[in-house]
């Protein structure tokens, strides 16, 4: 870990306002995995965002926008997030979202295959579209036309846009986690 975990008692005013908002959002939307220390300090991507609130606050605002009333099914979102995390080999991202995906009904076999960077053979149609979309984007270049059309057909124009922004957000989250070598918390 390249950044010390910030104790809530040492936060400056900008950090404190961001911390309070993130604690509220974490409690509402990011449950099932370790993301807050016993003393209230934030773990995962939230700690680096607190270190630099001028960058962390806008990233947190995008994160909140993506988790507030998403149109995409939960399993579809998790497939796209895990494809992104696997591409970047982002340990904390994979740790957190494997747990979330299990709670959202994805099988251990599917999850293990995605985390290994491979496409499971038993994806639902929606999951397959999300996998192909996220995989194409994280591997670079323009999203293939047929992949884009499949997403629009499956999720509508808004859903395809949401999927794109979701992948982009989790690219940013994964890069943040990797930049600061954020570890998987000890149980």
Structural summary, described in words:
This protein has 187 residues and is mainly alpha-helical. The chain has eight helices and no strands. α4 (74-88) runs antiparallel to α5 and α4 (74-88) packs parallel to α7 (125-138). The longest helix has 35 residues, at 145-179.
Whole-number mean pLDDT: 97
Count of helical regions: 8
Q: Helical amount among residues, as a percent range?
A: 55-70%
Number of strands: 0
| Alpha-beta classification | mainly alpha
Question: What proportion strand?
Answer: under 5%
| Shape summary | globular
Radius of gyration: 16 Å
Low-confidence stretches: none
Q: Biggest β-sheet, characterized?
A: none
What are the secondary-structure elements, in order, as H or E?
HHHHHHHH
Task: Kindly report how far apart the N and C termini lie.
Answer: 17 Å
Oligomer: single chain
Task: Give structural attributes.
single chain, 187 residues, mainly alpha
Write the layout of secondary structure elements.
Layout: H1 13-29, H2 46-51, H3 53-67, H4 74-88, H5 91-103, H6 108-115, H7 125-138, H8 145-179
Helix pairs in contact: 1-3, 3-8, 4-5, 4-7, 4-8, 7-8
Short description, anyone?
The protein has 187 residues and is mainly α. It has helices at 13-29, 46-51, 53-67, 74-88, 91-103, 108-115, 125-138, 145-179. It has eight helices and no strands.
């Amino acid at each position: 870990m390249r950044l010390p975990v910030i104790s809530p008692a040492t936060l400056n005013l900008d950090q404190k306002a961001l911390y309070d908002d993130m604690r509220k959002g974490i409690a509402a939307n990011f449950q099932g995995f370790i993301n807050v220390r016993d003393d209230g300090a934030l773990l995962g991507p939230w700690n680096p965002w607190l270190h630099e609130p001028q960058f962390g606050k806008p990233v947190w605002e995008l994160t909140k926008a993506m988790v507030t009333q998403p149109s995409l099914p939960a399993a579809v979102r998790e497939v796209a997030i895990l494809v992104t995390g696997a591409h970047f080999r982002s340990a904390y991202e994979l740790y957190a979202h494997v747990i979330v995906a299990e709670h959202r009904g994805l099988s251990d076999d599917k999850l293990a295959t995605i985390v290994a960077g491979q496409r499971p053979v038993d994806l639902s149609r929606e999951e397959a579209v999300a996998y192909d979309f996220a995989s194409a984007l994280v591997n670079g270049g323009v999203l293939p036309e047929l992949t884009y059309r499949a997403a629009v057909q499956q999720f509508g124009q808004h859903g395809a846009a949401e999927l794109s922004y979701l992948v982009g957000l989790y690219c940013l989250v994964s890069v943040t986690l990797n930049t600061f070598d954020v570890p998987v918390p000890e149980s």
